Amino acid sequence: MDPDKERACMVDHQLRRRGIADSRVLSAMGEVPREAFVANARQKDAYLDAALPLSHGQTISQPLMVAMSIEALRLEGDETVLEVGAGSGYQAAVLSKLAKKVVAIEIIPELAASARRVLGSLGIDNVEIICADGRKGWPADAPYDGIVVAAAAEEVPPALIEQLKEGGRLVIPVGGGWGQSLQTSRKRGDVLETEELCRCVFVPLVHGS
Fold this sequence. Notes:
Blueprint: H1 3-15, H2 23-31, E1 52-53, E2 59-60, H3 63-73, E3 80-84, H4 90-96, E4 101-105, H5 109-121, E5 127-130, E6 144-149, H6 158-162, E7 164-174, E8 180-188, E9 191-200
Parallel strand pairs: 3-4, 3-6, 4-5, 6-7
Antiparallel strand pairs: 1-2, 7-8, 8-9
Helix pairs in contact: 1-2
């Protein structure tokens, strides 16, 4: 396994050739070592065109879904972004290359701790991993220029709408089971202007106790 070559191949074949056009997103996906965020036994699979299992029934999303979600945020570099469902920390690492600050929420303590360790080992210092219920967002750093959710909800949690800046963008998979839609929305007053990016399958957004 040559991670650098496999990463470059992923960017070219899985992303660029399938419609990801934002050069900053492609560059960030080409920089972040996905193999650092999967279990040692699965590192040989790190650049497969697929989601990969994590502990506690969670997954690290397919690279195309990560790139598509982040591209829809239309980041320019000076934003504060909220990520809900940090999981392994991989998407937060990609976001760290594209935004000024990333607040990433993970409800499972073991995953949150692991994500912190990996991000720290990579020298990424503009991501804060918080163990909390992502449905409630994180008011302390609101409002956010962008919010991206890496787990499916039956409907958009109201707290996320409230914490999104006017004109900000929200990307979230909506639906249950196999009938999910990856949606991108822009906040205009109290209304979200929404369009569908694609059909998708994500793990469900976990409820807090």
